Structures are given as structure tokens and as C-alpha cells.
Amino acid sequence: FLRREDADIIIANRTRSRAEEVAREFSGRVVGLDEVAGLDLDVIVNCTPLGMKGFPSQLPVDPVVFRPGQVVMDVIYNPERTPFLTEAEGRGCKTIPGREMLIYQAMDAFEAWTGQRPSYEVMAEAVRKEQ
After folding, report:
1. CATH of the domain at 53
2. Which of 5, 8, 78, 126 has the greatest CB tally within 10 Å of its CB?
3. Confidence (pTM)
């Protein structure tokens, strides 16, 4: 989707070689983690374990990167509200918890196996019951 929309995809990772690998796959560009705070970003997605139950609760980026109106997503779904999302929300960002990703992945898997698209509400309720 992002390639079709001609989005500028920026990848930052602790391991530069891994960032370069992902950037090649998605036609993105690599920046150092220390450079993220100086960028004007519309969407930020945290794919680190920071904030997940059992991991450090530190933020993966400097919070100065957050600005009102940005979309900020965390792929972590336990806990639902991570320090990353809490900080972003406090700075006026629209936040998307990892639970949303989990629900849509489950919907896609169900459809792949059965050929039928399940209801979002049914899948969301199943996730809520398990958390």
C-alpha cells in the first residue's frame, strides 16, 4: 500500500544491517535511531519489544518526535497501553494499539483457512476475552 501511495518509508533499527535489509524490501531509506527525533514523520510504528510485559518500559524513540495529529502505532498487544502509546497520546497523537494488528491478523488467517471473512466485532471480542 505505501509503495503504491509513493510514501517515503524511513527505517530505524538498532542494527543498521537489519534496517538496510528491511529498507531494501520496502524501498525505504535508513536513518540512525539518533536521527529520528529530527524528522517530520506522519506515521510512527514501534516494532521493538520495549514496553512489552517483561521488557524495559523505556521509549524506543525520543518523545520530541511526537506531534499532534501524527498516527502512532505499537505492535505490542500486552499490555494494550504501552508507555510509547501513552506518551504519544499525551502529545496529541492518534494512537493505535497492537491489539488492532492482532485482530486483523486473526481475521486474515481465518479467511485464508475458511474462505470467509469474519466479523471484526467477533474477533475483537475474542481477543478481549483472552486478555
Report:
1. 3.40.50.720
2. 78
3. 0.86
